[in-house]
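Here's what a typical entry looks like (Sodium:alanine symporter family protein):
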Amino acid sequence: MTSNIIDTLSAVWSFFNDYLLIFSLLICGVFYFFLLKGLQLRYLKHSFTLLWDKNTSYNDDKVNISPVQSFLTGLAARIGMGNIAGVAAAIAAGGPGAVFWMWVAAFLGMGTAFVENTLAQVYKTKIATGEFKGGPAFYITYGLKSKLGGLLFSLVLAFTYGFAFISLQTNQISESLNYAFDMPKWIVGFILVFLTGIIIFSNLKTIANVSGVLIPIMSGLYILMALILIVLHITELPRVIYTIVTSAFNTDSAFGATIGVAINYGVKRGLFSNEAGMGSSPNIAASANVKHPVSQGFVQMVGIFFDTIVICSLTAFMVLMAGVYGTPAGVGLEGASLAQASVEAFMGRFGAELLVFIIFLFAFTSVLGYYTYGSVGIYYITDNKWIANLYRIAVLGFTFWGAYKSPQLVWNTADVFMAVMCFMNVIACLLLWRPLYTVYKDYRDQLKAGIKTPIFDVSKYPSLAKTLPEPEIWDSSRHNKEGQSTKANITVEQPFK
């Protein structure tokens, strides 16, 4: 009887861990690739231009963030452990071919990111302070008319980021300190609980501000370090790329991970890095005060490109050039420790210790960001202070648990939570394809008509307006105050149904 229960739980775990996440992401990515006719290829250049176009937002807004601020905030949340330990873990478990499937997932994920962040803008609301709030919980509640679905997503959001992802960050800090300085993991766990407790039980805005300054600096240092190492060994790059591509379609386990394993770990670790389709970045994207919801979808799409196609590739090249993976020296190394050993092969012990500092900074500031995401989920459900404090205590418990447990167990736990959250968000994105296509076509038609800065007027789509929590946010009279009109030479489409 006991063995049957264990087998059943193992099968359920495997389903969530190995199948639900991958298939839901790929189905959504492929669906929107064809529906939007390869949007991530046709509009990538346009997306980059929006980063520096101040006309896409309302310049007189003193409360909400700008599109560029939204992009940088989302990028700060994305760039971190996933770009270092996540890539190394994917290679360790799935072989070099996992990097290729990480690229494929990122390419399709750019389209998914466009969809979820555009929907977050469409269904956003304004609170008493004048700030915009939105995200999957909102477009599930209003777009799908499912309050229960919005509540369930918020609960999963709170568990995924507050528990699973925080434990993963502290696990990688513990692994890196243990590798570099042989520091016992339980000591690291208590230190992290103390530091995390100071942050989440206080309103330490200074720490958040310092993190906002240090993350770009350390990201720049890491990119510079990786680029220098790659350039110094540039003759190895063709071999590395060839290995990545050929290993992606490997069917013989004797020569490394098979294609199924490579896809599995490439997609999962890529998602942990760029978060495309998970429903996390829309919570930030909704805060941007833009003139058309589609512009924010394009801006966030650039973040996926920069995170995975650029930074994750640098880590993969560096790890595979180092000559540690696939040798006796690399046996038993995974995640942060494999990345450290690879840097150490190039730079000596100084390189491994330098990476410890970078990993600690990235991971610990991510703990703060993840707690913020998780607390948003709790706040959506209830604003009870006692429940908020119990949530903080639980977060500290997972902070220690993550630092103490094995990397494989912590990664698997995070994968399951990530799969459930991603599945819920992806289903919502697929079901809301009509309103998404409506606003996308509106933007596209305005561009074709020669309007450089499209403006969304929801009054042209009365059926869509009825589903929005606050349709006045997209009222044409608001746009006209900026001295522009949405009616110039635009053919009104059939209303959304």
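The longest strand covers residues 125-126.

More examples are in the samples folder.
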